[in-house]
Amino acid sequence: MSNTSDLNILCLQMSADDQIRVDKANGTFDANLAADPTYYLQYSQFQTIPVGMDGNPEQFVQLLVDAMPHVNALRLCFNEHCFNADGSLHPQFERFLEAAPQAGLKLIVGYSGNEVSRLGDDGSVGGEALRETLNGSAIQGLTGAWKQMLDWLDDHPSVADAVHGLEIANEPATYARAERLTGNTGEFVRLYADHMLALAEMIDARSDARILVGGWNYSGKFDILASTSYGEGTVLDALRAGIGSDLIWSAHLYPAWLPDGVQTGDQIAAAYEALWGVLGDDDILLTETNAIGNLVNDASQHDPSFNMARYYELLSDRGIGIGWFPGVDYGASSLAVLDAWGRGGVRYLHPASLAHALNAFSLGESDPEVAGDDRLAAVLRAGKVQSEATGRLMAGVDGIATAFGGDGNDTLTGIARAVNMLYGGTGNDSLVGAESDDHLFGQDGDDTLRGGDGDDVILGGRGNDLVDGGAGDNTLTGGLGADVFRLLDTGDTAITDYDRSEGDQIYIGSALFTPAQLEAQGTMRDLDGDGYVDDLLLTTASGRVRLINYANVVRDGIVSGTDGNDVMDDSFVDYDGDTTNWRGSTIRAGAGDDRVLGKAGNDTIRGEGGHDSIDGRGGDDTIMGDIGDDTLLGSGGHDVIDGGRGWDVLDGGWGEDTLDGGMGNDLIQGRAGNDLIRGGDGADTLFGGTDNGNWLNGNGFDGSAGGLNTLEGGNGSDRLYGARDRDLLIGGTGADTLAGNDGDDTLRGDTGTDHLNGGRGDDLLIGGAGNDTLECLRGSDTLMGGAGDDVILTAPGAGLHAQLYGEDGADSFVFRVGRGDGWGTAVIHDFQIGLDRLVIEGIGDLAQVLHSDQVAWIRQVGADVKMLVQGDYITLADTSLDLLA
After folding, report:
1. Is 745 part of any domain?
2. Tens of pLDDT along 418-455?
3. What is the DSSP string of 596-626?
4. What value does the mean pLDDT take over residues 851-866?
5. How many structural domains compose the chain?
6. What are the beta bridge partners of residue 375?
7. Which residue in 36, 48, 46, 37 sits closest to 124, CA to CA?
8. Does residue 721 carry a pLDDT above 50?
9. Where are the beta strands (DSSP E) in 17-79?
10. Backbone angles phi, psi at 868, to 5 degrees
11. d(CA 201, CA 211)
12. Average of per-residue pLDDT across 759-771
């Protein structure tokens, strides 16, 4: 398994403090922040330093060490803008980096740059531009910044010695963005590997530190690395082999990233396996996670922080170390505010976040100084403490107080005038709180936990624990094992994981309540807001007891329709409580003629049976009509739409879409954006672009919008219509009709008797196999008939210069001359005398042309025959006039 759990990391946010002062003075600060809330943070184009140092880095570090027990490492970011012209960093940043090792802290240093992470996250940059940037300025900036950082570390050996790991690129999401926009071919997954391997080689040559490589996208996905080919193996194989034993996988996992419906320990363990199972026994470091302070203990909010934080031992079991971001001075989950100015001080604004972070840090650790059966009183860490419930500073509280039991059967006791945070460690421990709002964590072993007065949070952890909240409104979690909950003064008590199948028991007063008694006296409610009526509410003489997820019903994360005709919009709730959400939903409409609306996230929607109407709305959606005559709209975003079986209508909407009609005679519209459109089987009609979508309402098509589209007819006799840009139209099999419309298009008929018309623009028309008709009536086009007896029709006119190739077969070259808008030219490059025909409309075939008084002249010019007909020039290349006559 992984071997990084000894790392307990605070991740520091970075801020462009100097630029903030400048912009506040010139009045642009508020506008900049409104346009981009991260404008001055770690991805900034300005010089950044750790947030909250208040001009006193040394005191900041000392306050951090004093306020944060068990923290032994700091993670911070840099980029090319952090360096001065002489290679130095901001003076405060340098002082901070010097002070941290002196305080015994290790360092994780990582690159965090805009072009590698954020470029195009607003949808404003296309795939080709991202390709150019990633192969150009992005990798140049990344490489240059690392050279500067390695140079700086060479000049500061005491800092270099404290560096545990160098993280090549934090959240390399631009690669994933480019991969998606260019069709998910694997190109940018391999490019990411190339860049990481090259930089790892450079770093390894100059540093003995471990090398951290992030997962795909926002450092969250590793299965893509394992499924993308690279040489004779995969990208994952290449990174492992290239970096070797120095490699640590840098993973990010925020609670909201867990799949919908994940609540229990088993489900969270399964989610971890799905995320990291492909990494096997490699070292993994969870470099970014957190838990929001005012939600992590609120059983009524159904926030994923609540569930994830109650099973941090699952991370320890996998040997995974944890980085908390942001660690201090910034955000709703930061552990403290360090006031480094003046005499200094600490404000614990999110004590709930701190309590759970310290649980994650201390799990599985062993301290030889507390290896026996110890009696420990909590140690006060002075500071102001804010109530998570009220948002105000707590009166009569002098700070937080912590105690860590380690090995052995320990007794840990809270102290007065403090928010106590007690951690039993291994062994059968006894934890006792005091009068304030305490956090008690039994961790491993059969523990006894008593909260005392105050609104306490108690987690038994692994083992058969006795949990007694005492007086107050308490939140109790037994954890893994057969636990006993004793409620003498219930107040408003929430028990989050009562599970009779594990042997859990509940005593109210002195009475043991069986499941039958609980259900007889209680009422089933939805008390945690998860959409299920699966929580049990009991009213007692001294308050109430809430048994959260009593019926153990959880959502499967899929919004499922019925066999009827459903309207699955924002208000739809399926049979197990799932609804659509802004992060992106998986929706299965089921049988019936359904109407489905996605949301702003990246949705996956299946129509399944019936004639369905689906609108993905915002986001990069995947929409499948499946069986039935469906109407599928992508709307905003870069969508993938598959009609499936049936006569479907597909509309990509805005964005770079991939549309496939599937089986049936489909009508497909790409609309704006560079789309890939495939008709599939059947006689399909494909449009590259449209004007405000009027084609869906029967108002016609004029090709006035679109993009660089690719239209593939597939099997069947299809009709393909390009837009106003440079489109590629491929007819496929069948008798197809292809119209390029505006733009410099490429039309390929492929097999079948096809009709190709380039429209406006300088087009390339290729008939392919079959007896095709190719038309060049506007623009300077190249027409190639291919195999078969083709008809090639052109109308020379002002500015038109057509290049004509009949190729194999007995071809007919038909000219429509005398348009009256100026002279044009047409060149036949492979006219076969005796096989091909030349026809000029209004005159006749070649024999009539040779003797017509409408032909101004016809003569041999070098190897070619040229003629002037009603103001237009026609050339038969490499042809003898004598043989023509």
Report:
1. no
2. 999 999 999 999 999 998 899 999 999 999 999 988 89
3. EE--SS--EEE--SS--EEE--SS--EEE--
4. 94
5. 3
6. 411
7. 36
8. yes
9. 49-50, 73-78
10. -115, 115
11. 10
12. 92
